[in-house]
Cbb3-type cytochrome oxidase assembly protein CcoS
Amino acid sequence: MTVLLFLIPIALFLGGLGLLAFLWALKSGQYDDLDGAAERILLDDDGDDENQNDEGDAPPSA
């Protein structure tokens, strides 16, 4: 029974710590745009033009 005197406060402390971490994540905007990262990977970026040529994926001839 005396073990519960140690385990209950530790469990309450860890639960409160998890709640504070979750509230911090909400406040810092971690959950604002859930679909953005999932859709961003599907978009074609044309920012890397140096590796592209007119022949598609074939390497440039020397």
